[in-house]
Amino acid sequence: MKKITGLGLIVAAMLAINGCSTMDKAFPLEGAKVDERKITGAGSTDTAALGGDFSGHALDDPNSPLSQKVFYFDLNSAEISMGDRNALMAHASYLIENPEVSIVAEGHADERGSREYNLALGERRGKAIEQLLLIQGVNRNQIQVISYGEERSAVMGHGESSWRQNRRVELRYSGY
Amino acid sequence: MKGITPYLFLICLVVSGSAQAKLTIQITQGMEGALPIAIVPFGWSEPGDVPEDIAGIVGADLARDGHFAPTPVEQLVDTPHDARQVKFSQWRDLGVENLVVGKLLATADGNYQVQFQLFDVLRGKQLAGYNISAGASQLRRVGHQISDIIYEKLTGQRGAFNTHIAYVTVDQLAEGTRRFKLAVADADGFNEQIILTSSKALMSPSWSPDGQRLAYVSFEGDGGSTIYVQYIATGERERVASFRGINSAPAWSPDGQKLALTLSRDGNPEIYVMDVTSKRLRRITNHYAIETEPTWIPDGSGLVFTSDRGGRPQLYRVEIPRGGPLGRPQRLTFEGSYNTRASFSPDGSKLAMVHGSDGVYRIAVLDLKTGNLRVLTESSLDESPSFAPNGSMIIFATDINGRGVLEAVSVDGYAHQRLGFSQGDVREPAWSPYFSK
User: Which CATH class is domain B164-431?
Assistant: First the structure.
């Protein structure tokens, strides 16, 4: 019973983060549109020579919201920031369109406090992102959450500027 | 005890142990009113160098504890090696209250006899006298045993010098590559033994009560955290938990039959108790918050763990009756916004923890009878407190100028010592229980 209540809270929190409007309408981020915007943005002869397609993989296109694969968090928080919504919706759409592709959401924490609690906190951040993607309709089998706590810092150093970059979730794609 | 104002002094003993790493022990803060004690270098009448400086080991042990003030060797007024050679008036004039003398004798079988005596200088009386046989490789341990005898005679409390610590070291190799080592050493940092080397993170070593095994967390493999149990002597190990999600925070029950641990296989981190033989699991917590870092109440009646069910991480206690239903978790900490990673004093009367307040994380001790919380340290990135098996000191990890070091603080907060290596980080100390090898 408690678990159901807990899940309900998480879902409610997600809805609160995302507002009440339907997200699909607010962010129509199918793969084609992402590419199109990229091409008009770039407008170089190189791009033209490619016949309207980005030469690399969509996931590697620096102008696609899919290029954002690291998401940062506040201290002791697993709340997804508003500014990350756009990119996460793009990842959700991509995963829905490419069911053979899977991701690992790696959760991380900064060095402060106890290591074991930070391991749990890293998982909570990974799960927050997993939950958002699931709500969009991504298949559960496409996502795995692995927490590394504070054991794999992105940046060494002891200060808020380093800590901020270490409180993160990194999406790692495979199968594309 | 008079004048317990702490004062600062610095003794630096740089020694190279049998291992490659160079260990430094610094007493960073001692106590005013520490007991003055003279420890005379032990006699040795055979040809060649003395095989071990027993008096040096005993002096370093007692100085590290902080409650003793060993007289510097150059200030010793005489060098007696047994009772007949001691002139008590000399030592009284020097202001010492206790005197330790002794000698090493080589025996016909190639081993040694260590004789020592402890005297009350003011009363001119022997308090202890022992004759200990040992092989060459055991002489350091004999030194620690002598320290334990002296400690118990003079404080009434059992000594913890002849014990061990487990810890994790991290060497930064090439850019982005690190080497993690799980190590066991004597409580003074000597005789380091590497138990495991890995390119992936190692965490949370926990001693079995018989001192034979360590449970720990390893990130080897692709699935994140996994719990192993490893025999220290043979290196033989067993993977005990590798479920989907987090597998971490192992803690041995006092009877050695069970491991408390954290698993998130059912959705989010919860506390479980595993039967070590059958691997059967019993779920202890059931909450959507984070529950982790279980530690056993020393009588085995339940656990204390970290939970943020109240919004912020705090410590909770749960009773685990034999065969009966679980108790309802009771919150134990209310001071400060962050209290985690509990370690029980062996008598169950105190809890050491990581206490976070205003962005700094320090070691604090909660007296469970009075409810009084005392912050023992003044640094800002302290973690992993672990009680000595006699309850006198707490060893923990902290950060000094960007490097991880181990420190120990007396439970009253007055004596501080630091154990550091010349290179790399040291972290996650776990003080061994009493056990005989």
Answer: mainly beta
| Chain B closest-CA separation from residue A22 CA (Å) | 27
The residues spanned by each domain of chain B are: 34-155, 164-431
pTM for this structure? 0.85
| Chain B residue numbers touching A153 (CB-CB < 8 A) | none
CB contact under 8 A, A158 and B313: no
Tokens read off for A36: 């199109």
Homologous superfamily of B34-155: TolB, N-terminal domain (3.40.50.10070)
What count of other Cβ atoms lies within 10 Å of the Cβ of residue A143?
A: 21
Alpha carbon distance B64, B46 (integer Å): 31
Indicate the residue of A5, A119, A152 with minimum beta-carbon distance to B246.
Answer: A119
Whether the Cβ atoms of residue B352 and residue B345 lie closer than 8 Å to each other: yes
Tens-of-pLDDT digits for all 437 residues of chain B? 333 333 333 333 333 333 445 556 666 666 667 899 999 999 999 999 999 999 999 999 998 888 899 999 999 999 999 999 999 999 999 999 999 999 999 999 999 999 999 999 999 999 999 999 999 999 999 999 999 999 999 999 999 999 999 999 999 888 778 999 999 999 988 899 999 999 999 999 999 999 999 999 999 988 899 999 999 999 999 999 999 999 999 999 999 999 999 999 999 999 999 999 999 999 999 999 999 999 999 999 999 999 999 999 999 999 999 888 898 999 999 999 999 999 999 999 999 999 999 889 999 999 999 999 999 999 899 999 999 999 999 999 999 888 899 999 999 888 888 886 667 899 999 999 997 54
Domains annotated on chain A, with CATH: 22-174 (3.30.1330.60)
Interface contact A116, partner B, CB < 8 A: yes
Angstrom distances, CA of residue A116 to CA of A155, B240, B338:
20, 18, 14
Chain B residue numbers with beta carbons less than 8 Å from the beta carbon of A146 are 223-224
Out of A7, A10, A117, name the one closest to residue B313 (CB): A117
Q: Which of B304, B309, B371 is closest to B334 using CA atoms?
A: B371
